[in-house]
Amino acid sequence: MTHPIARIAGLRFEYPGVRALHDVGFQLEAGTVTALVGPNGAGKSTLMRCLAGLETPALGEVEVDGIDVIEEPRQAHRRLGYLSDFFGVYDTLTVRQCLMHAAAIHGVEPGTLEAEADRTARLLGLGDRLEARGGTLSRGLRQRLAIGQAIIHNPRLLLLDEPAAGLDPEARHALAGLFRALQASGMTLLVSSHILAELDQYSTHMLVLREGRVVEQRELRPTAAGSVRRLSVRLAAPDARLGALLAAAGQAVALTPAGDGATFDWTGDEAARAALLRSLVESGLAVTAFAEEHENLNESYLRTLESPR
Amino acid sequence: MNPELRRNLWIELSVGRLIAVPAIFAMVAAIFVLREPGQWRTALFTTAVAVFVVLVHFLGTRNAAESVTEEVRDRTWDWQRLSSLGPWRMTWGKLAGAPAFSWYAGAICIAAIVIASLGAATKPTGWIILLMVGSALAMHGSALAVSLQASRKASRLGHRMGIVLLLPLAIGSAVLLVNSQKPGAGAPTAWFGTSYETIPFAAVSAVVFAAWGVFGAYREMCRELSVRTIPWAFPAFSAFLGAWLAGFASPPATALEGTILVGLIASVCATYYAIFADLTTAVSLRRLALHARARQWRRAAEEVPLWAATLAVACVFAFAAAVLLDRKAQAAGTAWIGLYPVAIVLLAARDCGLLVFLALAAKPKRVDGTTLLYMVLLSGLIPGVLQAFSEPLAAVFMPLGRLNGGQAAMVFAAHVILVWGAAAWRWRHLQRAYDGA
User: Fold this and answer.
1) Smallest Cα–Cα separation from A219: which of A28, A9, A5?
2) Which of A140, A242, B82, B308 is the most buried (most CB within 10 A)?
3) Residue A212 near residue A22, CB atoms below 8 Å
4) Contact B362 A17 (CB under 8 A)
5) Which of the 8 DSSP states describes residue B58?
6) Which chain A residues touch B434 with a CB distance below 8 Å?
7) Are B63 and B104 in contact (CB under 8 A)?
């Protein structure tokens, strides 16, 4: 049973003459990775900064792990980590010192600072750079150090704004692995990126923001019973009975133009799905494929953007 | 250990620096001491005070101010704002840490002063050290507070103005310290009619101002770290400053009269300082309005601009001053002088209105710089030019010194109505823009 680790209600944020967020509301379930996507200027970074308690909204409520971020930002900061899209690291401090400082200011026990710095550095592949100064690191290594600073205190919620910007493909792949590992450890992630293929590797949910409004929030790979899945049927040859049989099973179907297949949303369980396949075969249809379709993040996002406002 | 202090110590105190400072100080002191070996105490004392002023007062103040602006520039400030450190720990971590190198050098200077004073019966060494440390801390705290305000506003004007305001404190304490050993330095200071020895009086004052400076830095840190506060501290400081300065008012003014009149001047000056140093935007004003509309009074009070709070204090002083001056005017038979304080506050209210009017522009740019330009135009340049043609016409823009108190108050009241009316028009326009969004 999951519970919301972040809750936003009626969030309104304004810049001079412009409303950046229009009474935004949503929840993030614990242990999920949510891809925050939307066009430039949709309000993604502003939303993240409000969640992190770095900006004061005009109206609304922001809670992280039950803590009111607006009322008690210092308490909330123990429970969240945030990587800004424009971050800096201390050029004159070593990697070890940067990580120890990040741990200390987030309330990690003083006696464990060095051990936590070592652990985090190893996790991010910085174990052999602990004595290197921040100013001497490459762009990719600085990015890893910044992520290390954001996660060293094991936050319940991790906010990442364009975490893979400027990284090479290998580093991006490693980053995806890290995010999956963090999710597996129980952390909840909200990741904003323009590289949807990268988000697709580890995101479980999608939150689409357009012109400061949430236009969709949904699960990308449904696993729970009762979740909506997209199924497709393919026949060896067109058969006019396909539509009627699926309709009889209570499905709103979209037939292929040639009439040799269909796609439809399915909410039944595995037994009901098997029963449907059996009925199609027993009716004499030449079924060549009966499978769940996985819409990737890019397709989901584009479909959402193309939907009427 | 305070994490922010430790981070600064990592940066500031390298082994090389720890060794170099006493070595360099010893060499500098030797130059002056060896010139007049018979006067080695005075030479060592003066050298130590001078080095302290340079390294702790000036370099330390710069480092305290840079402790935030540097982080903003290097994009590390958001990390700090995201920390779970409270504003007090962050404040003292920065105040002790950023000038740590200066304080290390300062400790050597203090040790040298103590050595130079051993056996010299007349020198009030303890008070001098207290004055040195107190004034340095006052400057560091104020510099950090100013720096926090300026970084929030991303304004060079506010930063420069804050530094300019620190200069009297810096120069005053430096002059006092350097001259503390000269003949006549022991002349008493009269404050509220009582004589005090100058150095002890300055030392105690410095400690009190240090407390205000550190408290100011703490309050600004609260705002920066999103810890919500109601803006009472700055108006309270302006009232305190007025009361402290009033102590130097010459007789025949009584303590109460001095406090009221100097308090008015101090609170009006504080209002002008807040206009340029504090951040006023359409967004913050709208947050105030939204919270007030929702009857969330505490949240609304948190959004009240500093200039509004100090202007309220100035209004209280102006009312008291008006009553006071009116009584004197009646006794002396001079009419309307009692309304001069009201005119001055109305002038400040007009200039606050200018700020709001410009802040509410659809695309506000350089609001404080433009406000300053408008103020100079309305109060200086335009009446200056008109004076050559018609004094009454010039008085329409700047009645102070041209009209009596009552007329001046009426002219400025008209200014207030016009400027705030224009601001209200922009406000309504802005509301429509938001509501249509």
Assistant:
1) A28
2) B82
3) yes
4) yes
5) I
6) 14, 17, 19
7) no
**Is the same domain home to A202 and A234?**
no
Q: H or E segment at A254? A: strand A253-255
Q: What is the pLDDT of residues B376-391, one digit of tens each?
A: 999 889 998 988 888 8
Could you give phi then psi for residue B309, rounded to 5 degrees? -65, -45
Tokens of B99: 């000038």
State pLDDT tens for residues A167-185: 788 888 888 888 888 888 8
Tokens linked to B177: 């310290």
Q: Nearest CA to B12 among B73, B74, B55, B76?
A: B55
Q: Is B401 left (phi over 0), alpha (psi -120 to 50) or beta?
A: left
Q: At what angle do helices B255-277 and B125-153 cross, to 10 degrees?
A: 40
Residues 1-20 of A with CB under 8 A from B: 14-19
Same domain, A251 and A142: no
Number of independent structural domains in chain A: 2
**Residue that has been written with the tokens 């009221």 in this structure:** B260
Q: Are residues A205 and A288 in the same domain?
A: no
A304 inside domain: no
Tens digit of each residue's pLDDT (9 = 90 or more) over A244-256: 787 777 666 666 6
Q: Which domain holds residue A212?
A: 6-219
Residues A236, A215, single domain; the answer is no
Residue carrying the six token digits 């990390």: B79
From first CA to last CA, the distance across chain A in angstroms is: 33
What ipTM was predicted for this assembly? 0.82
Per residue in B155-195, pLDDT tens?
666 666 666 666 677 777 667 676 666 655 667 888 888 88
Looking at chain B, the number of H-run helices and the number of E-run strands are: 20, 2
Residues A90, B7: C-beta atoms closer than 8 Å = yes
A123: helix, strand or coil: helix
Q: Are residues A73 and A178 in the same domain?
A: yes
Length of chain B measured in residues = 437
Do A87 and A107 sit in the same domain of this protein?
A: yes
Interface contact B282-A16, CB threshold 8 A: yes
The ranges of chain B with pLDDT < 50 are: none
Residue for token pair 């070890």: A96
Return the residue of B nearest to A98 by Cα: B7
Is the CB of residue B169 less than 8 Å from the CB of residue B137? Answer: no
SS3 category, A59 = strand
Contact status, residue A65 vs residue A5, Cβ threshold 8 Å: yes
CATH number, domain containing residue A180: 3.40.50.300
- Where a domain ends, among A187, A219, A251? A219
Q: Kindly state whether residue A107 falls inside one of the protein's structural domains.
A: yes
Q: What is the three-state SS of A89-120?
A: CCCCCEHHHHHHHHHHHCCCCHHHHHHHHHHH
For the record, the structure tokens of B354 come out as 């200018």
Rounded to whole angstroms, the Cα distance separating A199 from B437 reads 31
CA–CA gap between residue B140 and residue B160 (Å, rounded): 15
Three-state secondary-structure class, residue A62: strand
pLDDT band at A1 (very low <50, low <70, confident <90, very high): very low
Segment A248-256 long-range contacts (CB within 8 Å, at least 24 positions apart)? A249/A276, A249/A279
- Determine, yes or no, domain membership for A38: yes
Domain identity same for A245 and A161: no
Q: pTM of the entire structure?
A: 0.83
**Angle at which helices A139-151 and A113-123 cross, to 10°:** 130
With a CB-CB cutoff of 8 Å, which residues 66-125 of chain A face chain B?
70-71, 73-75, 77-78, 80-82, 84, 86-93, 97, 101-102, 104-107, 110
Q: Any bridge partners for residue A206, and if so which? A: A35, A218
Q: Amino acid identity of A203?
A: S
